[in-house]
Amino acid sequence: METTVSSDALITNIAVLTSGGDAPGMNAAIRSVVRSAAFYKIKCFGVFRGYQGMIEGSIKPLGPRSVNSIINKGGTILKSARSDEFRTKEGRKKAFANLQKSNIDAIVVIGGDGSFTGGLIFQQEFGIPVIGIPGTIDNDIFGTSHTLGYDTAMNTVVEAVDKIRDTAISHNRLFFVEVMGRDAGHIALNTGIGAGAEEILIPEANMGLDRLLQSLKRSKKSGKLSSIVMVAEGDKIGKNVFELAEYIEDNLPDYEVRVSVLGHMQRGGAPTCFDRVLASRMGLRAVEELRKGTSGYMIGIGNGKMTLTPLDKAIKGESKIDNELVRVSEIMRL
Ligand code: F6P
Questions:
Q1: Can you give the pLDDT at residue 9?
Q2: Closest of 196, 188, 19, 43 to residue 111, by C-alpha
């Protein structure tokens, strides 16, 4: 059983969990699942520490009052963990046995593609319906224009880079700013445009060291005294951000170069209004789909409307970089 839709499913007990890297908006999604379940008179359980907590039986009932005042909080009240044990059949059996103790008959997984893969295998093995809500700052999930946390992370990055720009200008410096995105350049590309970066290096395109150097030389010649280069952590040149900075400093001696790695601060903080609303919509839709008997799908957003994508497609599909944005970034650097 991969994806089924029937009209007469009777769901009585839903479990919700967060898994993989946390993202702002996860709490708002938990709140939405809990309150939507209560609206439909379905019992809701929170699984703590993702699939590992499911194996360990860390499962507690959640009611509408358990999720008071979390819509504005970063992180996840359910905590998150990576579980090697859940990759084994034995581990998954233990997890299922724990769900059975609370008569849980459906699961909402909030996370990224790794979390969805676990959910899909679990559904296939035990026939328990699973619905996914995409939660990751990287926005690297096929089937949704926005994952939870992406908008907040972009705003966090732009705010940080604005501050870096102040000091870059004061000292006539070139800054390399590394942002998250192991496999995807969405954060780097959008924040690069939003923060006015000179160059944007992303995993989806290999700019090459030489072109980077030539371009920075050109911009220096054109009168720019300071610059920002936005680097996604998974960028394709194959050098880490410190090596890149060293190479440029060696070959462009008129520039003083500095590096700033924004790191995990991008995953924290209060979610933006966009992420809170998106989380609220996705949580409600997840519960409503489970009531309808839908299973093995991810809730997404496209053109402002909620969408459904089979989990296996969400996992395998590629969330492509928008070439129009690449073009905008190239012209704006003039
Ligand atoms: O949440 C996704 C992500 O932020 C990636 O961009 C990054 O490479 C990774 O998580 C870091 O994960 P961890 O917190 O396990 O170091």
A1: 61
A2: 19
Residue 281 binned pLDDT confidence (cut-offs 50, 70, 90): very high
CA distance 75 to 55: 22
Tell me which residue has its CA closest to atom 10 in ligand 1: 21
- What residue ranges of the chain are covered by domains with CATH 3.40.50.460? 150-267
Average pLDDT, the chain: 95
* Alpha-carbon gap, residue 22 to 136, rounded angstroms: 7
> Residue type for 112, please?
G
Kindly list the distances between the CA atom of residue 303 and the CA atoms of 111, 205, 215, 311, in Å, as whole numbers in the listed order: 22, 26, 35, 20
pLDDT band at 74 (very low <50, low <70, confident <90, very high): very high
Give the mutation target among 80, 113, 138, 262 for probing the ligand 1 site: most ligand atoms within 8 A of CB. 138
Residue 236: pLDDT over 90: no
Which ligand 1 atom sits nearest the alpha carbon of residue 136? Answer: 1
What's the whole-model pTM score? 0.95
Active site residue 138: yes
**CATH 3.40.50.450 for domain 13-149+271-316:** yes
Q: Enter the tokens of residue 67.
A: 């999720």
List Cα–Cα distances, 256 to 227, 293, 334, in angstroms. 10, 60, 21
Tell me the CA–centroid distance for residue 141 and ligand 1, in Å: 14
Q: Residues lining ligand 1, CB < 6 A?
A: 21, 136-138, 180-182, 233, 267
- Asked if 175 contacts 168 with a C-beta cutoff of 8 angstroms, the reply is yes
Topology of domain 150-267 in CATH is Rossmann fold (3.40.50)
**pLDDT single digits (tens) 3-47:** 444 444 689 999 999 999 999 999 999 999 999 999 999 999 999
**Which atom of ligand 1 sits closest to the CA of residue 21?**
1
Q: How far is the CA of 234 from the centre of ligand 1 (A)?
A: 11
pLDDT of residue 283: 98
Q: Report which ligand 1 atom has the smallest distance to the Cα of 137.
A: 1
